[in-house]
Sequence to fold (314 residues):
Amino acid sequence: MIILPRQKTAIHVQLEVLTPRISPLDPLYDLLTENLRREQSGYKGEQSLDYYYRHIVKQPLFLHGLRIKDKKGSDFFQIDTLMIFSNFILIVEVKNYTGSLIYQVETGLLTRKRNNGELDRFDDPRAQVEMQRSRLQRYLDRSEIPIYTVVVFANQNCMLQINGTQPNFLLRERLPQHISQLLSNHSNTANYQAESLQLANQLRDSHQPSNATVVEKYRIHRKAIRNGVWCTSCKRVFMIRKQRSWHCPSCFHKDSDASIRALQEYKIIFGNEITNQLAREFLNLESRKTATRLLQKANFKVIGKNKGVKYILK
Ligand SMILES: [Zn+2]
Fold:
């Protein structure tokens, strides 16, 4: 049963909307594109595990992307997938790396050899999950339910070589089998059936998604963000306003509601409040009247009066 469904992070959603609006000539463009690629790859890797999750013999309670505040200090920790069984908890850390990876168990060094012989180095996933385990343990306080961890390499194009013994690093195909083994090891141990659902709900209620914004994180200047209404068909060029509708100069698609989609993008990037002037700027409109008509047509809630009128985007 899924207690907390998987969702794209706010940063992921913002990068998707924002990156196409940044000029490829902007110095930030490559960085944003690379970060978007990473977010998409991580998300895809996690999604690809759903098939294997369905093959787990006894279905646990699933919490995806759980982010909770550490009891010690003020920072947060995040778990890709948390599975709560009646006898134990399993933390799943998902890695979507491709290529030839080598992990040195003794030092925790994880490297990837590129075709040109150069090495990429990644953080030690073992240290990462161990940290998550101790923080979750602290969060659960006196609970005695055992917590296990596993690192799953989700990408089919990943060659994993482990130097030493590390039974908790798996290629994705091995996950159901690994869990079957844990279940059979626990067939006669203490059962926390009643506690587990309560615990899952408690964790879900403590979940606090990050409210970081890409604009603040990368200090993106407003001028660097291109204004316009993307064509709702080809999605490649900005549409032109004429004869009370939006027209695409490239594929000739016509859509009178295209600005609603654009305003949803505005909301994702800048938040849910907009004024007539900000809307005109973002939609590339000259006429105050047209902007008013479009904002009213979309049925947004209005706050304030006269010149101070603001619309709450939904
Ligand atoms: Zn078009």
